[in-house]
Amino acid sequence: MIQQLFAWLADPAHWQGTDGLPTRLAEHLYYTLIAVFGAAAIGIPLGLFVGHTGRGGLVLVGASNAMRALPTLGLVTFLFLLGGGSQVSTLIALIVLAVPPILAGTYAGVQDTDAGVVDAARGMGMTGWQRLWQVEVPNALPLLLGGLRNAMLQVVATAAVAAYVGLGGLGRVLLDGMRIYDYPKVVAGAFAVALLAVTLDLLLAGLQRIVVPRGLRVAARAAALARGATRVRVKPNGHNNLTKIETRTTESGVAGGTKS
C-alpha cells in the first residue's frame, strides 16, 4: 500500500486539473475559512454580549451544548435538501457547526475575567464599553482563540464529510477513490485532510502565542483546571520526608451576573 501511495503521488496527472490535489486542497481551505469567519461573526459578538452583561447565560450554554450534539452528516444533508441542493446551504451547515465552540470560548473567556479587576476598572470610572474592550476582551483572548482552533478543526473534518452532498474539496478525493476502489487515492486524500488540519491548528497556535501574553496563557490554563480538573494536594504525614497525596475533583457551575 505504501508503494502504491507513493506511485499515486508521483503521477503528475493527480496534481493537475480541476480534480488535482492542489485544486481540491484550495477548495477545502476556501470552504473552511468561509465557515470559520462566518461562525466568528456570529459567535464572538454574541459571546461578548452575554458574557459582559450576564443576560441569558444559562440559555446560551444550553443552546451551545444542544448544537454540539447535532449529528454532522444529518445536519449537512438536511440543510442541503432544504436549500434546494445549493452549495450555499452546505456552507451554512458548516457555519452552524462551527458556532458553538467559538461562542462557548468567547463567553467563558469573558466570564473568567477576575471580578476584582472588573471592579477596579469600574472604580476608575470606565464605562461598560471601556471595561469590555480594555479589560474583559484581552483576558478572554486565550479561550476565544482556543474556541477558534476547535472550530477550525471541526470544519476541516466536516467539509470532508460534506462531499457526500456534492461539496468539493478534499472530501471529493476520498469519495471518488472509494467509488472506484482506488485505495491509494483514499489514503492520499485522508492524509491531505489531516495535514491541512494540523497546519491550520499550528498557525492558530502560533498566532495565540504572539497575541496572548504569557501571563494570560498561564492564567487560562489555571482557570481550565479550576473548572473541573483533578486537584492534587501534598500533605505531610508526620514521617520525615514522606508525603501523602490527596486528590479531589472539583466541579463548577455557570453563574450569571451583571457586569455592566
UniProtKB/TrEMBL annotation:
Keyword Transmembrane: yes
Main location per the UniProt record: membrane
Top-rank lineage group of the source organism: Bacteria
Domain spans labelled ABC transmembrane type-1: 25-204
A Pfam family hit: BPD_transp_1
Topology in membrane: Multi-pass membrane protein
SUPFAM superfamilies, sorted: MetI-like
Record's subcellular location: Cell membrane; Membrane
Entry similarity comment: Belongs to the binding-protein-dependent transport system permease family.
Name this protein carries in UniProt: Osmoprotectant transport system permease protein
